[in-house]
């Protein structure tokens, strides 16, 4: 059992009592605490906890915890198994060539499952007679690890990178829509399927929609109207809307650009604010599109949320500019009690912001088509986390407050293109790298993963980011008042401060019931399961000396703030896209960049997971995890 100290910096406010009573009403509907309500002493250690209503025997999770550690393969709890569903290079179409790592081509990669799977969306389909379930999986392919992907390029990198390598990389980016079916308890891909689709960084035309559509700052020589972008890149996490469309978040878009702007160019400040040019990739050596000296507006065409209709493989994805341009980690949404859609998104960079978007119109639950442009009109807000435990949502609207011509904002297009600078002007709170943000419709709570920030100095801490050199991140809980996700003032508190609770150097805060396996660092993706329980996947836990993985997290009762280790990834991998099936029988996970690490290459991976063949590189893959007895995951 871990000993943890009471959190001295918990900003839980003087108005905590009010919050607790608010929460009791909000939280009880699903989780059945009503029968257990017994007023006892007040609790403050874990913020607004209604901890007193549960005892330690009330653990929400029933699986036997796996051990901390790191090795070449993955691990699941006793009584569970993990099926490999799709790997990088697997076929999606009847004409997909077999994966041949020594003879890759862009044409083949466009017909195969892409690289570095990240977000997983689940869109149920009507099952056929012999099926237990059928669905579309919508999977992002975030990026390519160039020197892990191609044989023979590491030694002379980056000069070794040819135009063909770049084209293969572009084809490995984007997303896949795959029909999947469950029979006899196991999922398998349906190949071929009329639904299957590849979206790539260069070959998928996308319409620009919303306030920046057609704006001169989005025009290029390929697209003089500023209305159609070929492709999407660095698609990290995402979301599925209530009407069943797939949202792809464009994250580290600066990575692809090289070159320099002409002296005094009007985009100089904007590009600098977004880290453009990032020069992580060599595409600009072979394609002018990624050279900002040639195409200064091209970076403004990325950093958006892309909406895809997975039911229609011919449909043109749309870049929804009303949601703002930044390094979107994800795009999880919820319908507010007044019927509007509220979408949360973190900007994953050190000192960047948390945002939410509230649609102007209500979601039409009867007519899917009526929602087709719902994301083009609404209010975009950035969060200011106050010391008194409140959150103010600051409206990014042209003409309001400082967002005027005086400060270089001439329209809402400028506001969304430079959402970061608009949020700076409004005084949003610089965070420790906001990653996935998950709202829970039932409880009115929203969980924000803050992965880490090793650049925050002592004099830069704030109430919501209280640790300088925050190596291991923390998790914040936002409470929307009375479950009204559209609110412009909310409450916040800490769920946990990550890292080793036994090492006082980090100031980690966990529930003392957390075992030696239950704590972690660098929370990244998360999911709320069908019963309202929170699950967290990590990217960077190797910094603590153990593999990345998935942890179940107690959010209520005396166990609030207790982690429990559920899944361990192979060495080098992070875990993304946790997604539960609506019946809780399956947890889909993305294992991304297995075997990767600085200075490793195609020739020297730290594992060859999941094939373990000497002539096969490690392959990112989507897993389907199930309980061997067919029961609900984690129960
Ligand atoms: Fe793509 Fe912030 O992880
Ligand atoms: Ca992530
Ligand atoms: Ca998520
Ligand atoms: Ca991350």
Q: Could you describe the 3D structure shown?
A:
By secondary structure, the protein is mostly beta strands. The chain has one domain (30-251, 303-627). Helices cover 9% and strands 28% of the residues. It has 7 helices and 30 strands. It has helices at 16-31, 106-109, 146-149, 163-172, 268-273, 412-417, 419-426; strands at residues 80-87, 117-125, 133-141, 174-183, 186-189, 197-199, 205-209, 228-230, 235-240, 246-250, 305-308, 318-320, 332-335, 340-346, 350-352, 354-362, 378-385, 390-395, 431-432, 434-440, 445-450, 474-479, 489-497, 523-528, 534-538, 549-553, 563-568, 574-580, 586-592, 621-627. The strands form 6 sheets. A 9-stranded antiparallel beta sheet has the order 13-14-16-17-18-23-22-21-20, with no helix packed on it. A 6-stranded mixed beta sheet has the order 8-7-12-11-10-9, with no helix packed on it. Strands 2, 3, 4, 5 and 6 form a 5-stranded antiparallel beta sheet that branches. The chain is globular, with a radius of gyration of 23 Å. The model is unreliable at 1-55 (pLDDT under 50). Bound molecules: MU-OXO-diiron (FEO) and calcium ion (3 copies). One calcium ion binds next to β9 and β24.
């Amino acid at each position: 059992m871990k000993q943890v100290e009471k959190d001295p910096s918990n900003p839980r406010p003087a108005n905590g009592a009010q919050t607790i009573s608010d929460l009791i009403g909000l939280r009880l509907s699903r989780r059945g605490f009503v029968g257990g309500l017994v007023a006892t002493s007040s609790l403050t250690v874990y913020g607004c906890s209604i901890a007193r209503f549960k005892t330690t025997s009330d653990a929400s999770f029933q699986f036997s915890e796996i051990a901390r550690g790191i090795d070449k393969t993955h691990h699941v709890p006793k009584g569970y198994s993990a099926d490999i569903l799709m790997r990088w290079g697997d076929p999606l179409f009847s004409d997909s060539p077999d994966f041949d790592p020594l003879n890759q081509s862009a044409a083949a990669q466009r017909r195969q499952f892409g690289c570095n799977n990240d977000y997983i969306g689940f869109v149920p389909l009507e099952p056929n007679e012999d099926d237990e379930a059928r669905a579309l999986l919508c999977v992002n392919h975030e990026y390519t690890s160039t020197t892990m992907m191609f044989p023979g390029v590491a030694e002379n990198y980056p000069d070794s990178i040819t135009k063909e390598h770049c084209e293969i990389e572009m084809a490995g980016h984007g997303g896949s829509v795959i029909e999947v079916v469950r029979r006899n308890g196991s999922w398998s891909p349906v190949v071929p399927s009329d639904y299957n689709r590849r979206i790539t960084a260069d070959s998928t035309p996308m319409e620009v929609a919303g306030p920046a559509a057609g704006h001169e700052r989005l025009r290029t020589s390929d697209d003089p109207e500023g209305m159609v972008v070929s492709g999407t890149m660095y698609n990290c996490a995402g979301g599925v809307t209530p009407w069943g469309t797939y949202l792809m978040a464009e994250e580290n878009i600066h990575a692809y650009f090289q070159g320099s702007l002409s002296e005094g160019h009007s985009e100089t400040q904007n590009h600098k604010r977004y880290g453009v040019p990032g020069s992580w990739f060599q595409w600009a050596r072979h394609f002018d599109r990624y050279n900002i000296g040639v195409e200064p507006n091209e970076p403004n065409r990325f950093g958006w949320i892309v909406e895809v209709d997975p039911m229609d493989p011919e449909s043109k994805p749309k870049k929804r500019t009303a949601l703002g341009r930044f390094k979107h980690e994800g795009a999880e949404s919820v319908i507010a009690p007044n019927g509007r859609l509220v979408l949360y998104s973190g900007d994953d960079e050190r000192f960047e912001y948390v945002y939410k978007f509230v649609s102007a119109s209500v979601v039409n639950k009867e007519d899917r088509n009526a929602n087709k442009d719902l994301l083009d009109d609404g209010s975009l807000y950035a969060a200011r986390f106050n010391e008194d435990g409140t959150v103010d949502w600051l409206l990014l609207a042209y003409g309001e407050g400082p967002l005027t011509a005086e400060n270089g904002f001439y329209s809402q297009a400028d506001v969304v293109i430079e959402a970061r600078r608009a949020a700076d002007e409004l005084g949003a709170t610089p965070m420790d790298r906001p990653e996935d943000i998950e709202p829970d419709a039932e409880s009115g709570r929203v969980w924000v993963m803050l992965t880490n920030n090793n650049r925050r100095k002592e004099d830069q801490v704030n109430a919501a980011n209280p640790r300088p050199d925050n190596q291991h991140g923390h998790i914040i809980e936002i409470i929307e008042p009375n479950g009204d996700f559209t609110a412009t003032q909310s409450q916040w508190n800490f769920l946990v401060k990550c890292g080793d609770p036994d090492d006082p150097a980090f100031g980690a805060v966990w529930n003392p019931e957390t075992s030696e396996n239950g704590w972690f660092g660098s929370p990244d993706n998360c999911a709320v399961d069908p019963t309202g329980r929170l699950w967290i996947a990590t990217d960077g836990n190797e910094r603590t000396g153990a593999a990345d993985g998935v942890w179940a997290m107690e959010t209520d009762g005396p166990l609030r703030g207790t982690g429990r280790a559920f899944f361990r990834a192979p060495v080098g991998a992070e875990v993304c896209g946790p997604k539960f099936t609506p019946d809780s029988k399956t947890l889909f996970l993305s294992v991304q960049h297995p075997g990767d690490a600085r200075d490793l290459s195609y020739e020297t991976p730290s594992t060859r997971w999941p094939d373990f063949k000497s002539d096969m590189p490690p392959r990112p893959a989507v897993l389907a995890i199930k309980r061997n007895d067919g029961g609900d995951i984690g129960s």
